[in-house]
Amino acid sequence: MSLSVSIGSLTLKNPVILASGTCSPDLQKFTDLSKLGAVVTKSVTLNPRTGNPPPRTVETPCGMLNSIGLENPGVEKFKKEVLPDYIKYADKVICSVSGELLYEYAEVVKRLNDTDISAFEINVSCPNVERGGIEFGKDEKMVHQITKSIKSATKKPIIIKLSPNVSDIENIAKAAESGGADGISLINTLYGMAIDINTKKPKLGNITGGLSGPCIKPIALYYVYKVAKVVKMPVIGIGGIMNTEDAIEFFIAGAAAIEIGTANFVNPNTGIEIVKGLAKYNNEP
Amino acid sequence: MIIRNKEMAKIIKNNKVKDGIFLMSIEDNGIAKSASPGQFVHIRVSDTYYPLLRRPLSIHNTEGPVFEILYKVIGIGTKILSEKKEGEKLDAIGPLGKGFNSQLAISNSQLAIIIGGGMGVAPLYFLAKVINSKLKTQNSKLKILLGAKNKDQLIYEKFEEFGNVSLTTEDGSIEYKGLVTDLLLSTLNSQLSTLFACGPIGMLRIVKAFAIKHKIPCEMSLEENMCCGIGACLSCAVKVRTQKSEVRSQISYKYVCKDGPVFKAEEIEI
Prior knowledge:
The structure holds two protein chains of two kinds. Chain A is of the alpha/beta class.
């Protein structure tokens, strides 16, 4: 039985994708990125971003907080210096796009139209930046508008990545669909923080961050289940997937594909192990 | 770069050497043979989700197919590590990162200093050993300055085979009372060729200021919260200042896991 899956005009050979911010081309030394359905790049913005002050991550029970702050070299340098390695190693590259201002999303996409990127994932859900990011993803009208503006800027499929830090995720997902999205991915990290009781100061340089890892899996599964019921487009499940069993739970909840994030830090070969696990599960009577 | 899953690397010894400080010997030919001083291994201490992330630990020494890590029990990860027994298998990735340039110590016939504070001694034994073996054919000299809170926390015994070792403790329980940087500041800087440092951030700031003031090449090993260990997540950021012109400089970041853990003192903002 084939593991292939389609998101708009994009067909992936299997439904296992590595999530944005967790899988630079450096991972190729530890795994074989070409065996995965796709790899999502670190988010790219129009202008370079320095990122947040350290400490940028802290471990929490069964998870971690991060506040990297969308550090990236900006679209032009990304295109010349970073993207070629992703293209070289991965079977399909999905480019994560973010912006501080609304127009920046479409502008980044336009500048990447002439590359071998297979699809765009629109990050309207980063909790760690002052402007843009999640601010665009909280409001259904804004999500509709941003989806429409990007759709008119590219022929490549677009996936909207949603935040769980919203009051009505189902309507936001529907707004993305009516705006022309080809797929939807969820969830991005949850707002969180950790405090050092000796210094009485936050453990993260940016004070707050986004929570990820196995501790968020039940929440992610819940949102995937809710959203998959109200949209027709493929749903990509993300949140705390560490192994094949976790991935299968997401498929049963309604996901068409899954993304692996934090697990890449623990075992860079998690994606391939899940691809093998899914093939085995599918072949069992 | 060698990936060893839990079936491969084998714990040979895991002994308490000082108050709360352990030395673990791990047999892994691939890691041991390709390691250089200043590099680290990324160890998964448990198969469970708490603790979730790997722990980066400096390579303390190598002997044939065996490498050693020297660590202090601080949190849940090092506690679990300290309870591991001889014969158990370990999931370790390494050697990772960019280490010390030991060649700096022997490229001229002056004095190289290795300075370590607290658990900062961890990567320095391997460095001292490599430099010492190369110095035998040179006129250069090596001096080692080590400091800790008290004698129960000071790892120094094995360094004495390299000759010139001076010790400090904050409580005066062994040799000089004070900070290890006090010894550095009283050294005649005109004889110095190179400085290698690892220790608490306060110590490194003093070493950096000294090195820059006297224009001495200086390399230091840094720590920062780390996740992937391979340059993917951008967690372990260290501020660097790029001079755009005489009046303008720009802040950017380098990464302890990939660009470091060893950096040139002048390139980092600490």
